[in-house]
Amino acid sequence: MSKSEITHKRKSVRRYDPVPLDATTLEMVQAQIKKVKPLYPDIQFSIEIASKTKGMFNIKAPHYLVFGSEEKDGGPENIGFIGQQLDLFFSANGIGACWLGAAKPEEKEASKLPHVISMAFGKPAEPLYRDISQFKRKLISDISEGQDPRLEAARLAPSAVNAQNWYFIAEDGKIHCYRKKATPLLGFMFNKMHQVDMGIAICHIAEESETFTFAQENAPERKGYIYTGTVV
Fold first, then answer.
1. Residue 47: phi, psi to the nearest 5?
2. What kind and span of H or E run contains 190?
3. Is 6 left (phi over 0), alpha (psi -120 to 50) or beta?
4. Does residue 202 carry a pLDDT above 90?
5. Which helix (H) or strand (E) holds 6?
6. Which domains does the chain have, with CATH numbers?
7. What percent of the chain has pLDDT over 90?
8. What is the DSSP string of 52-82?
9. Is the per-residue pLDDT at 209 higher than 60?
10. CA torsion angle for 177, 77, 3, 32 (degrees, to 10)?
11. What confidence tier does 109 reach under pLDDT thresholds 50, 70, 90?
């Protein structure tokens, strides 16, 4: 099953078999971590496998990915783009996964780079896939304008509290990507998550693209949104 197919059936798994994955599977995961492609190659990042995380809304799982990044513009988007490649890899190989926005690593397992986000993974104790009718998402017309078949994959991408705070403008084979400006009250809590979510959605677009380049262009403005970049 291809990653492109997985974008249309994956789900966030929240219940896991507590038994750790076998050594061969974990070696496969480590090998895949080394293969991820960043959205911004000049931003340093780290991915570690941990056995415990702590924090609000944590999920009990046998394993966690802990993502760190140097603090640069585009860092959270880069992590979202990288992490979603692994989320799709897990789903394609019978492994459950779920992004954890508030969970942090135990100190002894913390990365040298500032923590951005974590992801639970392991053998699922609930269905791994869902039918397209089971996705609870906004209409394509609510999050985009213009025509491009790749926008459906972006619409189906996961996001914090399923907010889908993104917008896309498709024109001339390009997709301009925007994220919604956070309100002053919620910005402290969700601004970084909105950036991670943007990277996740762009990853889904990349999976649907025969070739993929992401660049800054003279894109049209979108009121209430921040321009992130353009899929060329």
1. -135, 120
2. helix 184-207
3. alpha
4. yes
5. helix 3-6
6. 3-122 (3.40.109.10), 136-231 (3.40.109.30)
7. 78
8. -EESTT----SEEEEEEE-S-TTHHHHHHHH
9. yes
10. 160
11. low
Q: Which residues contact 124 (CB under 8 A, 6 or more apart)?
A: 13, 15, 16, 17, 95, 96
β-partners of residue 144 are 168
User: To the nearest whole number, what is the mean pLDDT of the chain?
Assistant: 92
Cα dihedral 60/61/63/64 (nearest 10): -50
Whole-prediction pTM value?
A: 0.94
Please give the Cα distance from 13 to 64 (Å, whole number): 13
Task: Tell me the pairing of strands 63-69 and 96-100.
Answer: unpaired
The residue among 99, 111, 108 whose CA lies nearest residue 45 is: 111
**Which DSSP letter does residue 172 get?**
T
Structure tokens at 159: 């996001």
What are the tens digits of pLDDT across the range 76-101? 999 999 999 999 999 999 999 999 98
Q: Tokens 């190659």: give the residue.
A: 41
Spatial separation of the C-alpha atoms in residues 121 and 65, rounded to whole Å: 8
Q: If we measure between CA atoms, which residue out of 115, 49, 104, 116 comes closest to residue 76?
A: 116
Burial 91-125 (b: 16+ CB within 10 A, else e): beeebbbbbbbebbbeeeeebebebbbbbbbbbbe
